[in-house]
Design a protein that fits this description.
By secondary structure, the protein is α/β, with parallel strands linked by helices. The chain has eleven helices and 17 strands.
Length: 438
């Protein structure tokens, strides 16, 4: 997908993420008064006047900073600028020009890209005269907006789409499979994304919680189109102290909600934790395709059947997602990452798989012959017929005589019989039971 790319840059706390959220019309980037909240490049699809483009939010730029996180942020912004067709340089209209603004302006002029100077926090006519001092940055006429109030956003976007290259594709495209990379902090989710993309797309350090936002990245593997969503790691509730980190947990759950398939990354050196169970449970309950990726497998000393023992432990602790395939990988070396893509293709096919009503009822009839349905007080469960009513995940509507007679164990038996014929690897199966005539 060769869609126009618009990148938002600026120093910390000038309203970049607020503008990002306003343009994409949903709360994706974390907005908080603390500088440096947005650390990675955050991607989202956006639209204005039926023209579609990719919008990138970036961390606050401090060009001369040498601390590890600001240095990484600068590298992220440089990569975003390189890929951008239009750059929105956000400045604070209330504060006026700062030395950091001047440094960023110099950096942008050297990029040779289309740059629009956006003067934010102009929410009253009385302060609009202050924007004239920004002409000294040498980037043309400032565009006055208030991201918080939503003022001037339309005029800004009118100007943005004027600068789109003619060869770019601005039509709507929904062919991408959405993949959420989930797991607790510091298990290698961002490293996996970076290995797949072949670039430092997401900040990776040994500091837990480096990734705070859910970040979308478009990627094509062969003929398959994906959107990878890197998420902040879910911590135990008692470990969540900052308000920003609470937002990150919400963002992770939202990423799961809007994904098609979740890749649960587990640290091979630590094994399955209680937190892994909770994360997997949320994805399962929401009907998402699931793959378990055991990362850092290169750090494990191998003996005969080591991976079989590890897999047995996973199946024991995550028995409720026994349908999820397991792959042992190293995000650091790239070992078996290609196998992950093979599984993504299989799981995507399975979450969209449909069974004809005739074949489904043949399976149900055979299941009843092999194991009689349960009974209670002389009344036996009768299954009249079933039909598939949905995909993502596959959902089956079964008509019966009495709901109270459908025990969970028999529902699981029916599920196993369906899986015996169609597999459905990587996807949960959902059932809805209705009494005849209901």
């Amino acid at each position: 997908m060769d869609r126009p790319v618009v990148c938002i840059v600026g120093r910390p706390n000038v309203g970049k993420s607020t503008l990002f959220n306003k343009i994409v019309r949903k709360r994706i980037a974390i907005t908080e008064d603390n500088p440096g909240v947005t650390r990675d490049r955050i991607y989202s699809e956006a639209e204005w006047l039926n023209k579609y483009f990719t919008l990138i939010d970036t961390g606050g730029l401090e060009p001369e900073a040498e601390e590890i996180i600001p240095t990484h942020i600068r590298q992220q912004v440089e990569i975003a600028i390189e890929s951008a067709d239009v750059i929105l340089f956000i400045v604070d209209g209330m504060e006026g020009v700062t030395s950091t603004d001047r440094d960023i302006a110099n950096m942008l002029r050297k990029s040779g890209k289309e740059v629009l100077l956006v003067c934010n926090k102009i929410d009253t006519k009385g302060v609009s005269d202050q924007i004239y001092e920004f002409y000294e940055l040498g980037l043309g006429s400032p565009i006055a907006i208030s991201a918080e109030q939503g003022l001037g956003i339309g005029d800004l976007l009118d100007e943005v789409i004027k600068h789109f290259p003619e060869h770019k594709d601005i039509e709507y495209d929904d062919e991408h499979v959405k993949i959420a990379i989930i797991g607790k902090p510091n298990v290698g989710k961002s490293s996996l994304i970076n290995n797949i993309l072949g670039e430092d797309r997401v900040i990776v350090t040994d500091i837990p919680g480096t990734t705070r936002d859910a970040i979308d990245t478009y990627f094509t593997y062969g003929e398959d189109k994906y959107i990878f969503i890197d998420t902040a790691g879910l911590r135990r509730k008692r470990s969540i102290f900052e308000k920003v980190e609470r937002y990150s947990v919400i963002r992770t759950l939202t990423a799961v909600d809007r994904s098609d398939i979740c890749v649960l990354v587990i640290d091979a050196t630590e094994g399955v934790s209680e937190q892994d169970t909770k994360i997997a449970g949320y994805a399962h309950d929401n009907g998402k395709g699931l793959i378990i990726a055991v990362n850092k497998w290169d750090l494990i000393e191998k003996e005969t059947n080591t991976h079989l023992e590890f897999e047995k432990d996973i199946r024991n602790k995550l028995s409720f997602i026994s349908y999820a395939p397991i792959v042992f990988i190293s995000a650091k070396t790239g070992k078996r990452v290609d196998r992950l893509f093979q599984l993504l293709k299989v799981v995507n096919n399975n979450i969209n798989l449909r069974i004809s009503t005739g074949v489904l009822n043949d399976i149900i009839s055979e299941a009843i012959l092999l194991s009689q349905p349960p009974s209670d007080k002389g009344v036996r469960l009768k299954i009249y017929y079933g039909t598939q009513v949905g995909v993502r995940p596959p959902k089956f509507l079964i008509f019966i005589n009495k709901k109270e007679l459908m025990h969970f164990s028999y529902q699981r038996y029916l599920e196993n019989q369906i899986r015996k014929y169609f597999g459905f690897d990587g996807t949960p199966i959902q059932f809805e039971f209705k009494e005849k005539g209901e």
